[in-house]
Write a structure and sequence with these properties.
142 residues, globular, mainly beta, Leucine-rich repeat, LRR (right-handed beta-alpha superhelix), six-stranded parallel beta sheet
Length: 142
């Protein structure tokens, strides 16, 4: 996969892909759209995704990913849409995106499970927040 360096879009949405995400995704430096949503990807989110500095859209919604959201994603300064609903990923988008809003694009759309007690994802600048207690509405649970 790491040899596809000219690839600009990669869409696994609903592709029933499973297993851990390969760290080689970070070698796809021309990528600007990465959709991993509604799939069986599991394990942790590779920190190498922070190398995708041309990435404008990243959708991790309804995956089986777990662990912490890597701080390396703060290097994604071209991002305009980032969705992280219905996962077991935890962390702070404040540290990754919200604290650097002045260098990010105007109109950035951030969506996360940022309601709940405590919230799964902290995000003071998210445009859409969902209650993580509503997991029964998420694939593969609902």
């Amino acid at each position: 996969m790491g040899l596809l360096t000219l690839l600009t879009s990669l869409d696994f949405r609903g592709a029933w892909a499973s297993g851990s995400l390969p760290s080689e995704l970070g070698l796809l430096t021309s990528l600007n759209d990465l959709d991993l949503s509604v799939s069986g990807w599991n394990g942790t989110l590779p920190s190498e995704l922070g190398l995708l500095t041309d990435l404008t859209r990243l959708d991790l919604t309804e995956t089986l990913l777990t662990g912490s959201i890597p701080l390396e994603l703060s290097a994604l300064t071209s991002i305009v849409e980032f969705d992280i609903f219905c996962t077991d990923l935890k962390g702070s988008l404040d540290d990754i995106f919200c604290n650097q809003m002045e260098i990010l694009s105007d109109g950035i759309e951030l969506g996360a499970d940022c309601f709940g007690t405590p919230p799964r994802v902290e995000c003071s600048c998210c445009t859409t927040c969902r209650d993580d207690a509503d997991d029964e509405s998420c694939w593969p649970y609902g």
